Amino acid sequence: MITFPLFPKIRRWRGALFVLALVAVSCFLSGCASLRYYNVTDFDTVVVDPGHGGHDSGASSRGRPRLLEKDLALDVGRRVAAKLRDAGFRVVMTRRDDRFIPLDQRAECSNSYRKSVFVSIHFNDSVRRAPHGAEVYHNRQGTWELAGRIEDFLSAMPGSERRGVKTARYRVLRKSEGPALLVECAFLSNPGDAKRAASAAWREEAASRIARAIILQRRQ
Ligand SMILES: [Zn+2]
To answer: Are 165 and 126 within one domain?
Structure first.
């Protein structure tokens, strides 16, 4: 007769295995619950996050005048925030002046608002001078469409080019539980992009396009 020596042991431990399975499933579900899956058109708050600040200047242009990413990001962020407020959104800025805010604190700010979209504003850098144009990163929380629209609008600006929507393990994107985007408006390492970014009119136009993409996303 064939015997299965393990079976009695499994039967003996069946209760414990059942409890373990229950614990595993509940841990998995509570982990999922911490992520706020909802339709990304259903948001009333935008957390605008001007990148860098204080001792963290971010990227800088090569020529004169020397442009600092932290200053440009704050300027564009303020312009985006003003336009979104005018459109009726509740807008929260992670920084309003030249100060350093830790990355986790920025994401926590976003996580403290229900139905929010987090938009981090940056300017890009490369060791080569050639790359130019806007890039938009997102954290896959239903954000592909909004990221695509912002990229569409920014890449249509004169001198820009289509670089595509991307995902990356940037800390602010990973730590944000809701929809989160990171917009690289232009490359400060590219002379043409840097010259355009130095103009307040260009930054106003870039901010208008970012804000318009967000407004259109909610109204779909
Ligand atoms: Zn940056």
So the answer is: yes
pLDDT surpassing 80 at residue 42: yes
CA of 51 from ligand 1 middle (Å) equals 6
Quick check: is 40 in a domain? no
Strand pairing report for 134-138 and 90-93: unpaired
Residue 67 CA to ligand 1 center (angstroms) comes to 13
- Rounded to the nearest angstrom, the distance between the alpha carbon of 180 and the centre of ligand 1 is 15
Condensed to tens digits (0 to 9), the pLDDT of residues 63-107 reads: 888 999 999 999 999 999 999 999 999 999 999 999 999 999 999
pTM: 0.82
Q: How many helices (H) and strands (E) does the chain have?
A: 8, 6
Quote the number of domains for the chain.
2
100 in the same domain as 7? no
Copy the structure tokens of residue 35: 């992520």
